Amino acid sequence: MKIIHTARSMAAWSERLRREGVTIGFVPTMGALHDGHRSLIRAARLRCDALVVSIFVNPTQFSPTEDLAAYPRPISRDRALCREEGVDVCFEPTALGMYPEGFQTIVTVPALGRRWEGAARPHHFAGVATVVTKLFGIVQPHLALFGQKDYQQAALVRQLVDDLNLGVGIHVRPTVRERDGLAMSSRNVYLSHDERRIAPLLSQALRIGRQMIVGGMSDVAAIERTMRQTIEQEPSIHAEYLAVCDPDSLEPLSVVAARAVLLGAVRIGSIRLIDNLLVNKPDGKSRATR
Ligand code: AMP
After folding, report:
1. Which of 30, 40, 277 to mutate to test the pocket of ligand 1 (most atoms within 8 A of CB)?
2. Which residue range is the domain that position 244 belongs to?
3. Is 289 contained in some domain?
4. pLDDT band for position 281 (50/70/90)?
């Protein structure tokens, strides 16, 4: 496996392979790799001839009060996982390499980035959209893989690829979970023993919401209230948002439609966790509120 640190060498590698007709798959990450990342890498491996994983803790998607400095960076372990999964290139740019002095272009996706994570973390999605655009420009992949775990992020990336004609296929993979339902996340290592015990309440609340919808409930306020109550049975978890939304626009629904996404974010101590579930009503129609 090659380890590449500069945009110039990365682009040269990709250009050479593209000229030879090799298809390039790409999995952008911030490292601290777990089985969620591994599932994206494996899915890319199956679909492409060559595979690039980037490991870059992107400073512009963190606010000054967030955990940039503390974000886990187990680089040797990450490289070992990439080698194990047959990754061809681990692209590890530096912050200065990505944002040299004089850098000024910012990519924003205003409507999709406004609510939920965008409201909780005001500069987050501009940081994400900008770095993804840059990484696509450097790596020039045919296909890039993202996790449903970050649902809003995946929606935003799809939109920006369409809007800017970036010519990169986007494939979104299901969320990989721990046995108790907690969505895998690099930030789970921050949870204390007690916090880890209650963290699965977020996925439980979303599952309860989904059951209500599948069972025919279409009263969004009642569904959201039940999800919140599920979380708040534990005083040390605070529900930031639990919402029933349109799966494409991410706008909140007032009545459940045939398809919906349940989006949730909670705070446990100083740690924020997010999760989501897609819902397809079996009959594809809204039924009366029960
Ligand atoms: P991150 O390193 O957190 O920036 O995540 C890199 C990619 O892995 C993003 O596309 C995430 O959505 C995806 N990802 C993170 N956690 C999971 C998970 N539990 N299951 C599937 N994909 C995930």
Report:
1. 40
2. 186-280
3. no
4. confident
